[in-house]
Fold each of these.
Amino acid sequence: FNNKKKNLPPGPPSLPIIGNFHQLGPLPHQSLWKLSRRYGPVMLIRLGGTPTIVISSPDAAREALKTHDLDSCSRPQMVGTGRLSYDSLDVAFVEYGDYWRELRTLCVLELFSMKRVQSFRYIREEEVGSMIESIAKSAESGTPVNMSEKFMALTANFTCRVAFGKPFQGTELEDEGFMDMVHEGMAMLGSFSASDYFPQLGWIVDRFTGLHSRLEKSFRNLDDLYQKVIEEHRNTNKSNEGKEDIVDVLLKMEKDQTELAGVRLKEDNIKAILMNIFLGGVDTGAVVMDWTMAELARNPRVMRKAREEIRSCVGNKKWVVEEDLSGLKYLKLVLKEVMRLHPPGVLLIPRETIGHFKLSGYDVDPKSCVYVNAWGMGRDPGLWERPEEFVPERFEDSPIDYKGNHFELIPFGAGRRRCPGMSMVMAMIELALANVLHSFDWELPEGMTEGDVNMEEGAGLAVFKKVPLTLLPIKASHKIDA
Ligand code: HEM
C-alpha cells in the first residue's frame, strides 16, 4: 500500500526471492547500462530483498552525491567487507557516523595528505627506475614484456614500501604470496554473498558454495601478514625521520592514545586501514596503466603525440622527474580519456541511503543501495561524441576533470566519500607512464596489428584487462644522457 503511494523509479520486473540477480551477468556494469537505456538514468532493481537504485546520468549522480550527499553517504554492511575490515573499523566500508568522520579526517590530513604524498617521492622514483631498468633488459634481448605484470609489480612494490617500509618483490612478502592474498581479498570484497541478500537462509548457501571458508582463509592470511609487519615495526627501533611509513604513523598514534569516536585506536583499527590501502591501491593503479598502454598500442597517433610531448619537454635527460609532469599536458588528456573509458571502479563503491529523498522526482527510501554507473556514463553517446573512440583531444578546451566536480567523469567518486587516495595514485601513474614512453618506443609483438589488441574486460572490484597486455620495447632512438 505504501509503495503504491510512492513514486518509485522505473525498473525491470523482478522475480520472487532473487529479484533481478539473474539479470546482472558476469559484467554487471554492462548489463545495468543496457537496462538503464531502457528504463532510464534512475532505475530501481532488487537484489534479493535489497532495493537498489542504479544511477546512469551526470544529473542524477550530481543530485545523489552532491545535493543529497548526506542522505546517500553510508555504505551497505556486507559479509565480505565486514570480515576483512575487522567489523567495519576501516574507512571505505564502514557506515556513516562519528567513527567514519574522524577516521576520514585522519586519512585526509595525515595518511594521504599532499605532504605525505610528497614524502614518498623518492619511493616513486626508485620503483619507476627499477621497472624501467627491468624493461631495458627485455629491450636488449628483443623480448616482449607482459605490461600487466610489470604494472602490478610496480604498484605492489610502491604500496608495500609506503605502508610497510619494504617492497614486495625480493622480500618474504613475495615468498608468502602477497599478490595472491591481495587478489583473493579483492575477490572477496567484490563477491556477492548470499547472506547479504537473503539474511535468513543465505548463510547456508555461503557454506555450501565454500564462500564462507574462502573468506575466512583470506581474512586469516591477510591478518597474519599485517600482524608480522606490525610486530617487526614494534621490535625495530629505527629512527626514520622524514621516511616514516604508514605503519610507523599508525603505531605512533596508538602510542599517543589517539581516540576515534571516543574509542582508543588499537591494532585492529590499524589492520583495517592497511586493508583499505592494499585492496584500494594495488590493483586500481595497475589497471589504469595497463588500459592506458593498451589504448596507446591501438592508437599509434596518440602514442606518437604523447611520446613527442614528453621528449620535447624532457630533452636528453635520462628520467622524467616530477617537476616535468606539469608540462605534460597531452599525457594528462590521455589519462582523462582512459578514466572515461576504463574507470577501475566501474560502479564506484556502493552507497547506502540514510534518509528518504527525492531523486529526479522519484522516491528513494532509507537503506536502499546505490550504484553509480561511472562506466556507462563514460560511454553515453548523449554525453560524448563518438564515445567508443579514444580521442584525448576531446578534453583539450574542456574544464572537465576527474576530481569529483564534473559528474560525467567521476572515476574517484564524488562528495564526502570521494576517494582520498587520488593524489597518491595519480602521482605514481603519471610518473610511471611518462618514463615508460620516454625510455622506449613500443611495438606490438610480431604478427599482431592494432586491431588485435584484446580489450575485453575481466570481472573484479577493479575491472582489469581480461587478456594481459604484451608489448615489445625498443630502446628510445633519441640520445638519452646517462
Ligand atoms: C586509480 C586508482 C583509484 C581509483 C580509480 C579509486 C576509486 C575510488 C572510488 C570510486 C571510491 C568510492 C568513492 C565514492 O563512494 O564516491 C574510492 C574510495 C576510496 N579509496 Fe580509492 N581509488 C583509487 C586508488 C586509491 C588508493 C591508492 C587508495 C589508498 C592508498 C585509495 C583509498 C580509498 C579509500 C580509503 C576510499 C574510501 C573513502 C570513504 O569511503 O570515505 N584509493 N576510491
Amino acid sequence: MKIAVLPGDGIGPEVTREAVRVIEALDLGIELSEAPVGGAAYKAKGHPLPPETLALAQASDAILFGAVGDPDCDALERHLRPEQAILGLRKALTLFANLRPARVFAGLEGASALRPEIAAAIDLVIVRELNGDVYFGEKGFRTNAAGEREGYDVMSYSTSEVERIAHIAFRTAMARRRRVCSVDKANVLETSQLWRDVVIEVAKGYPEVALEHMYVDNAAMQLVRNPGHFDVVLTGNLFGDILSDQASMCVGSIGMLASASLGERQTAYGTFGLYEPIHGSAPDIAGKGLANPMATILSAAMLLRHSLGQAAAADRIEAAVARTLADGILGRDLGGTAGTTEIGDAVLARL
Ligand SMILES: NC(=O)c1ccc[n+]([C@@H]2O[C@H](COP(=O)([O-])OP(=O)(O)OC[C@H]3O[C@@H](n4cnc5c(N)ncnc54)[C@H](O)[C@@H]3O)[C@@H](O)[C@H]2O)c1
Ligand SMILES: CC(C)[C@H](C(=O)O)[C@@H](O)C(=O)O
Ligand SMILES: [Mg+2]
C-alpha cells in the first residue's frame, strides 16, 4: 500500500505532519513518499505540479494532500499559480467526486456559529462535482465592443458529467438516510437546468431515495436555518466549494472538515483517491503552530477507508478524534488553546 504525501504550502505541511504521524502509529505497513506541490514546488522546480509529483501520485494507491496557496505567487500567470496543482491533480486523475462530510462531534455544539440545538442535528455530506463547471470552461480576457477589458469564464456541464456524480450521490444516500437534495440555480442558468433534468432521470434508478431540488441561494439560507434537514447535498463544482466552507462553520470550524476526491479507478485495495482538508494554506496563521490538524487527520481516516480497505483503522482514528474533542482538547479555531502538535499528540494518545 503506497500513499503519496503532498504537503504543499502554508499550514499544509504542519497539518499533514500530524496526519502522517497518526498513519505511521497504526503500523499498517504503508509506504509513504513525499513530493513538493503548489507554491513550494513552483519555488523549487518552476512548476506547481511538477511531472515527478504527478508521476508519484499516479503510481500510488492514494494521495494525502495538505493545502496549496502562497501570496507570493498571486501575481504569477494563472497556469503557474499554486492552486493549479490541486485543480491539475483532480483533472489529470479524473477525480470527479468530492465527498465533504460535515457532522457535529459531541462536545462541539457550543463551538458552532449556530445555536447549539440547531448545530447538534448536523450530519450531512456534500457530494460536489469536481471535474467540470465554470472551473474548467474556456476562460480569458478580451476587449468588449465598448473597448473595455473584460474577463470571462464559461460555465457548462455535459449530461455524462452530471450522470456520474448523481449516481455517486444516490449511492451515498442509500448507505445513509436516503435523502438527496440537489442544489442548482435552474431559475437562471441553463447549466443548472440540464443538471436538474439529468438528476431527475438518474433518480428513477433509486426509488428508495427521496429527491428534492433547491436553488443555491435558498440552500445557503437553509444550511444556517435548519441544517439538520440535509442528508446528501448533491451539487456542482462552484456551489459545492462555497457551501462546504459554510457547512464547516455550522459544525464549528473549517479546521474540522475532511474530504475525499474519488474517480472510478480501482486499486488492489479500494478506490483510488485524493484526501485533503477543505481549508486552504491559511497564510495568516502559517508557521505559528496554531492550525487545527483534525480535518487532515480525518481525511487520513477517509483515505484508509475508501482507498486502502482499512475500515477498522479508519474507525480507530475517528474514535480517537472524537475522544480528543470530548476531552476538551481544542484548537483556537474552536475556542480552545491547543496547538497543532498538541492536538496531534492527543489523538495519538487516544488511538
Ligand atoms: N485545496 C486547497 O489547497 C485550498 C483550499 C482553499 C484555499 N486554498 C488557498 O489557500 C490560500 C488562502 O485562502 P483563504 O484564506 O481564502 O482560505 P483558508 O482556508 O486558507 O483560510 C481561511 C481562514 O480560515 C483559517 N483556517 C483555515 N484552516 C485552518 C485550520 N486548519 N485551523 C485553524 N484555522 C484555519 C485561516 O487562518 C483563515 O483565517 C489561497 O491561496 C487559496 O487559494 C487552497
Ligand atoms: C484552491 C481551490 C482551487 C479549491 C477549489 O476551489 O476547489 C479550494 O477552495 C477547495 O475547496 O478545495
Ligand atoms: Mg474551497
